[in-house]
């Protein structure tokens, strides 16, 4: 490795976040801009090039390379983006290679949930752990399993789609086309359905606002987060039985409400998972917030 800094870039459907990341995971020169993924691919790539060069210019030491976290699925070699529901112009593209050619800097890429898990493992809530599961709650449910210090990727490289664990054979239709996935229950649309069916007075209330109402003691609002925690707990109990992790961390856009759903989540896991696995198990919020993907992307450069 030639420098003690690398560049992490997290490409989401609405925002691109980027920063210089040092060998301890500390961020500097953070950028957070609209993604403009409605434009064409060459325009997007040249903007990434410009971001990369801007950050390199701000560093007074050599930069080791660039890591890209992309909200999509990669092929097994992590060279081509094969699926990206919110970043359609990236599908079929060799994004890392294109950035490498334009900037002359070594560039790697991975899925955003994998990057989040790597970032939390490097300098966040899972630091020092070799057996952990990271879950992100947002519009969709994402995640990654790290076992023995390695991400579980499976044969095609797509392993770790924790949002699409089926938890109910007769459950509602999911964004993936199947029925009864975890995401169909507690992804953004699933939570909205639960609210409309059970607490219609909150049909037009955003989750952040609902969180405030719940904290102020409203039982109906609290119930929404209890439902979230308990439903997530069913899936996590299964994951605990399969992977025997020492740690489960939960982050993502809904993590602002972790105080409300964490205990129902733990209760459900305690009630369902193998008792012999529970003694060594911790379940806690992720700690790097929206920047976990940037840290993780930069970490990939060092691996
Ligand atoms: Zn699904």
Beta-strand residue fraction: 15-25%
What oligomeric state best describes the polypeptide chains here?
Answer: single chain
**What best-fitting shape do the alpha-carbon axes yield?**
globular
Mean pLDDT: 93
Annotation, overall tally of beta strands: 12
CATH topology of the largest domain: Nucleotidyltransferase, domain 5
Q: Judging by the overall fold, what is the CATH architecture of the largest domain?
A: 2-Layer Sandwich
> Span between N and C termini?
10 Å
Can you give a write-up of this model?
The chain has two domains: 124 residues, ATPase, nucleotide binding domain (Nucleotidyltransferase, domain 5), CATH 3.30.420.40; 158 residues, Nucleotidyltransferase, domain 5 (2-Layer Sandwich). 39% of the residues lie in helices and 21% in strands. It is built from ten helices and twelve strands. The strands form three sheets. The protein has a five-stranded mixed β-sheet. The protein has a five-stranded mixed β-sheet with strand order 10-9-8-11-12, with helices on both faces. Strands 5-6 form a two-stranded antiparallel ribbon. Zinc ion binds next to loops. The site of zinc ion has 6 residues, from loops.
Question: Can you lay out the helices and strands and say which pair or pack?
Answer:
Elements: E1 5-11, E2 15-22, E3 27-34, H1 41-58, E4 63-70, E5 73-74, E6 81-83, H2 95-103, E7 107-111, H3 112-123, E8 132-137, E9 141-147, E10 150-151, H4 182-186, H5 188-198, H6 207-215, H7 219-243, E11 247-251, H8 258-272, H9 275-278, E12 282-285, H10 292-301
Parallel strand pairs: 1-4, 4-7, 8-11, 11-12
Antiparallel strand pairs: 1-2, 2-3, 5-6, 8-9, 9-10
Helix pairs in contact: 1-2, 3-10, 6-7, 7-8
The chain binds zinc ion.
């Amino acid at each position: 490795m030639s420098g003690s800094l690398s560049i992490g870039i997290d490409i989401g459907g609405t925002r691109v976040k980027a920063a210089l990341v040092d060998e301890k995971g500390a961020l500097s020169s953070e950028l957070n801009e609209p993604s403009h993924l409605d434009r064409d691919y060459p325009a997007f790539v040249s903007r990434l090039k410009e971001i990369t060069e801007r950050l390199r210019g701000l560093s007074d030491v050599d930069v080791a390379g660039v890591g890209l976290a992309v909200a999509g699925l990669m092929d097994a070699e992590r060279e081509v983006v094969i699926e990206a529901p919110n970043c359609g112009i990236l599908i079929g593209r060799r994004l890392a290679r294109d950035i490498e050619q334009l900037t002359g800097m070594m560039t790697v890429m991975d899925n955003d949930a994998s990057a989040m898990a790597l970032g939390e493992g490097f300098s966040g809530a899972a630091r020092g752990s070799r057996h952990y599961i990271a879950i992100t709650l947002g519009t969709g449910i994402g995640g990654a399993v790290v076992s023995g210090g390695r991400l579980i990727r499976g044969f095609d490289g797509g392993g770790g789609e924790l949002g699409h664990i089926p938890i109910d054979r007769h459950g509602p239709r999911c964004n993936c086309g199947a029925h009864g996935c975890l995401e169909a229950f507690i992804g953004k649309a699933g939570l909205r359905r639960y609210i409309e069916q059970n607490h219609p007075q909150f049909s037009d209330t955003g989750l952040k606002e609902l969180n405030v109402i719940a904290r102020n003691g409203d039982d109906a609002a609290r119930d929404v987060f209890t439902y979230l925690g308990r439903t997530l707990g069913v899936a996590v109990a299964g994951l605990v039985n399969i992977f025997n992790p020492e740690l489960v961390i939960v982050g993502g856009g809904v993590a602002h409400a972790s105080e409300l759903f964490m205990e129902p989540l733990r209760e459900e896991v305690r009630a369902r998972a193998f008792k012999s696995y529970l003694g060594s198990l911790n379940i806690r919020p992720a700690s790097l917030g929206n920047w976990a993907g940037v840290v993780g992307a930069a970490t990939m450069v060092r691996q």
